[in-house]
């Protein structure tokens, strides 16, 4: 949405139509460009299925088939996410029904960088406190050892459901002595240290959990996507289409959940994504340069920072905030992506909500022209994010060859759930890519993958008799 579609810039403003067109050109994705991204994405997905060690690793999750909807019992789920640590008690009642009790613990930036063992000690201690409270309330019996799904939303190489070696941290984490180690063992050591009575049954990526949980309540679901602090996707692939697993002896027609870790698409190569200089600055100043290129253009962690970098450029050029103290905008990541959502939602003639964003958080008075520009810029950045996300979804649909029959995609995360118009922009992107057939692909809010999905996978695992590669068959 350009300013031409909303309000016109007030007269005598340094913000000109030429300036607006500059940013429209930088952040707008044409249908032709989107289709070329999709084609490159499909080839990247195939390479990840063929060989280990690829940039987009296409990690087998060792979750086989779909849930029946009749799983029952009490299960724990612990979710180490990008913003919060969440502990859940999930009661599956059968018939697709469930109940969740949960508690969240905010993660500090210090905790995201502390020694790895201390991070898992914090997880174990939080779980212990949750269990003590649940026992005191009579929700669970004292001393009961419940099966638990551990939702660990970072790329891990798995060779079974209860084991995973961390490939790399994402979402700003950098805890030492975790990459290259089995995270389930690290967590198990902390659970033992804190005498926490649980059975660590399954290691689950939140995107895989979203896929399984969404299929549990909507069997048309074929793809699960996370669009929040980070971004990722999962889907079910026939083992016969995963050449790197051919030596494991799993029947070709078996369905295996694949954790794509698609946030790494176009990392190192930088041939396909239309990266701006702001994307490049974010990449090079991040704790993981040259990694997660796709995620850095899309996810909620980075959109606010892209916006801030544009503002800093315009401040330096003397276009905005003339004579104002802008020192509060010098801090990296000080401009929250939620502010973009707030600005796009402002429908007042004078854009008074945007006035509040800058006056309350940065002590800066704004002109109407500046506020009009900021709303349009937020729209450009948010729309690019949604359209790039639709490219990733379209690539999986094309890889599975299910466009004609159609499917539903379960999506979770703050961008999809809370950013105004994000869902509609995804659908517009799918139509721009596929034409009218793009309407065969619908999206819905994913059921709680890190809680419900993790518990369902723990239940699926618990009910299987085999303990080898066929844990979930």
UniProtKB/TrEMBL annotation:
It catalyses: a D-hexose + ATP = a D-hexose 6-phosphate + ADP + H(+); D-fructose + ATP = D-fructose 6-phosphate + ADP + H(+). Pfam families: Hexokinase_1 (PF00349), Hexokinase_2 (PF03727). One of its GO terms (biological process) is mannose metabolic process. Its EC number is 2.7.1.-. GO terms for cellular component: cytosol; mitochondrion. Residues 222-460 form the Hexokinase C-terminal domain. The keyword Heme does not apply. InterPro entries: ATPase_NBD (IPR043129), Hexokinase (IPR001312), Hexokinase_BS (IPR019807), Hexokinase_C (IPR022673), Hexokinase_N (IPR022672). Pathway: Carbohydrate degradation; glycolysis; D-glyceraldehyde 3-phosphate and glycerone phosphate from D-glucose: step 1/4; Carbohydrate metabolism; hexose metabolism. PROSITE patterns: HEXOKINASE_1 (PS00378), HEXOKINASE_2 (PS51748). It is an enzyme of class 2 (transferase). Keywords: ATP-binding, Glycolysis, Kinase, Nucleotide-binding, Transferase. This is Phosphotransferase.
């Amino acid at each position: 949405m350009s300013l031409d579609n909303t309000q016109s810039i007030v007269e005598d403003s340094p913000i000109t139509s030429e300036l607006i067109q500059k940013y429209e050109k930088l952040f707008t994705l044409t249908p032709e460009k989107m289709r070329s991204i999709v084609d490159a994405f499909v080839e990247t997905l195939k390479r990840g299925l063929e060989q280990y060690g690829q940039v987009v690793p296409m990690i087998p999750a060792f979750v086989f088939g779909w849930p029946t909807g009749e799983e029952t019992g009490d299960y724990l789920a612990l979710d180490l996410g990008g913003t919060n640590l969440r502990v859940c008690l999930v009661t599956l009642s059968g018939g697709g029904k469930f109940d969740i009790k949960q508690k969240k613990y905010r993660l500090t930036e210090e905790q995201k960088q502390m020694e790895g063992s201390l991070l898992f000690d914090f997880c174990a201690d939080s779980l212990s406190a949750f269990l003590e409270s649940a026992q005191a309330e009579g929700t669970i019996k004292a001393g009961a050892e419940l099966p638990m799904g551990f939702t660990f939303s970072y790329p891990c190489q798995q060779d079974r459901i209860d084991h995973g070696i961390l490939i790399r941290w994402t979402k700003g984490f950098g805890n030492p002595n975790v990459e290259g180690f089995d995270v389930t063992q690290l967590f198990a050591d902390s659970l033992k240290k804190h005498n926490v009575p649980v059975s660590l049954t399954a290691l689950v990526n939140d995107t895989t959990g979203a896929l399984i949980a969404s299929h549990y309540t909507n069997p048309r679901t074929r793809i699960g996507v996370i669009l929040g602090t980070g971004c990722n996707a999962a889907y079910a692939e026939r083992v016969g289409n995963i050449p790197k697993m051919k030596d494991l002896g799993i029947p070709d027609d078996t369905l295996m959940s694949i954790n794509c870790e698609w946030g790494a698409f176009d990392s190192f190569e930088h041939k396909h994504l239309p990266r701006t200089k702001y994307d490049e600055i974010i990449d090079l100043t991040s704790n993981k340069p040259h990694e997660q290129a796709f995620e850095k253009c899309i996810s909620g962690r980075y959109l606010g920072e892209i916006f801030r970098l544009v503002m800093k450029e315009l401040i330096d050029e003397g276009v905005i905030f003339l004579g104002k103290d802008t020192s509060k905008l010098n801090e990296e990541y000080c401009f929250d992506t939620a502010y973009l959502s707030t600005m796009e939602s402002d429908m007042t003639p004078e854009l008074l909500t945007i006035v509040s964003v800058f006056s309350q958080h940065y002590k800066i008075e704004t002109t109407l022209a500046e506020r009009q520009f900021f709303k349009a810029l937020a729209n450009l950045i948010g729309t690019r994010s949604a359209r790039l996300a639709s490219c990733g979804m379209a690539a999986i649909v094309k890889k599975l060859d299910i466009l004609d029959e159609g499917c539903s995609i379960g999506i979770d995360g703050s961008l999809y759930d809370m950013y105004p118009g994000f869902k509609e922009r995804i659908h517009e992107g799918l139509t721009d890519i596929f034409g009218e057939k793009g309407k065969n692909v619908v999206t819905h809010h994913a059921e709680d993958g890190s809680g419900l999905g993790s518990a369902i996978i723990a239940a699926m695992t618990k009910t299987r008799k085999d303990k080898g590669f066929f844990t979930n068959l």
